[in-house]
């Protein structure tokens, strides 16, 4: 057979398969035709449009929204994606039992963390149900002594910085969110948490792990195994997988050994203990879920806390409002409870504005399992569609947020909140797959802010415009880092003060 005949045979086979695929998915194609969107190529769809740097993905989505409005479609190969930015429809979709599975892009997380709470799959409900008690309000209140101890130590270590030195505060904050998470959710003692195998490596590598996953999500050619291997990405992935297994395996071993001696109280029990004692997960599944909940707790909390502190450094009036409120309500020293944190209204506004500007998840994807109508019945999402919710773009939409690229905590004053669609702000998502750690993270982040401001005054590094240069790697962060300067307050310089007490 000549090469010409071979190529012709392959072309005919490909055309035949394409026609069969179109016939098998005729209902999807019929409904998709009613949704606006850019023209798509055969086979590739709109994949070439997204061959850009990860940071430019957000700009591409913004451009498509400007052209097509709140609803548009795009194809990534044979995968139909429909992007929805209407707040009312977002609430309806995320709370519907017809849309309660993660989208196909989350499958790219599974080599690192398996199926479950973050990556989805058949086990996510079971995994979430087991972990839930460690994230509720009672459990978080039990954890506040750890939050206070770690936040206080962080605050006092910051007083030792050179007041003229610019530094990235995330590097300092993440050390203490890591210690908080290992001593609470992971169930380790202070001594054990300082001796977890390869923990420093995992903390340093977390951003690179998420960047690798996001690159594979947004660069379709990396999903071709041969290309992924030739370019060296597979080797990097294998290194990260080994690192994750070593780290999480050591935590699980420590907890198994401790459980042979005694079982913690139900209300203060960590997630690792719950998974071990449930007997419902394999050893590998426990490692995966340990890594999942470790990194989504300590890394996300560190980013949000660093964002709040960086924003406050550029907003001196708001920094004074928050500081004065802390001193008036909580005093200059002493532990802080979750209930007391609720009284800090100015802090809450800055916290929410940070979540608006720096989304924990830039976009989320869900699989539509049954047809569901949107846009007041004008459009129908076909079964098998990948629903995309652009949280970052919703939070920056001028239709709901005046001057959306300016940092304005006053947006969350009660009188301003009343004027806005309540569904235009969804920092922790909605529905049965919303953020499991929202109560935990809020308490940890706010406790950190209280202690840092009690003993330090923050000063900006660079211009406020720099804060709108963004990096996207699943979550949204400040591209140039969370850079600040700190000046110790008088309360931190009292002679003989010991922050370890």
UniProtKB/TrEMBL annotation:
<keyword id="KW-0503">Monooxygenase</keyword>
<protein>
    <recommendedName>
        <fullName>Cytochrome P450</fullName>
    </recommendedName>
</protein>
<keyword id="KW-0408">Iron</keyword>
<dbReference type="InterPro" id="IPR002401">
    <property type="entry name" value="Cyt_P450_E_grp-I"/>
</dbReference>
<comment type="similarity">
    <text>Belongs to the cytochrome P450 family.</text>
</comment>
<keyword id="KW-0472">Membrane</keyword>
<dbReference type="GO" id="GO:0005506">
    <property type="term" value="F:iron ion binding"/>
</dbReference>
<feature type="binding site" description="axial binding residue">
    <location>
        <position position="435"/>
    </location>
    <ligand>
        <name>heme</name>
    </ligand>
</feature>
<dbReference type="GO" id="GO:0004497">
    <property type="term" value="F:monooxygenase activity"/>
</dbReference>
<keyword id="KW-0560">Oxidoreductase</keyword>
<dbReference type="GO" id="GO:0005789">
    <property type="term" value="C:endoplasmic reticulum membrane"/>
</dbReference>
<keyword id="KW-0256">Endoplasmic reticulum</keyword>
<dbReference type="InterPro" id="IPR001128">
    <property type="entry name" value="Cyt_P450"/>
</dbReference>
<dbReference type="InterPro" id="IPR036396">
    <property type="entry name" value="Cyt_P450_sf"/>
</dbReference>
<keyword id="KW-0349">Heme</keyword>
<keyword id="KW-0492">Microsome</keyword>
<dbReference type="InterPro" id="IPR050196">
    <property type="entry name" value="Cytochrome_P450_Monoox"/>
</dbReference>
<keyword id="KW-0479">Metal-binding</keyword>
<dbReference type="GO" id="GO:0016705">
    <property type="term" value="F:oxidoreductase activity, acting on paired donors, with incorporation or reduction of molecular oxygen"/>
</dbReference>
<dbReference type="GO" id="GO:0020037">
    <property type="term" value="F:heme binding"/>
</dbReference>
<comment type="function">
    <text>May be involved in the metabolism of insect hormones and in the breakdown of synthetic insecticides.</text>
</comment>
<dbReference type="Pfam" id="PF00067">
    <property type="entry name" value="p450"/>
</dbReference>
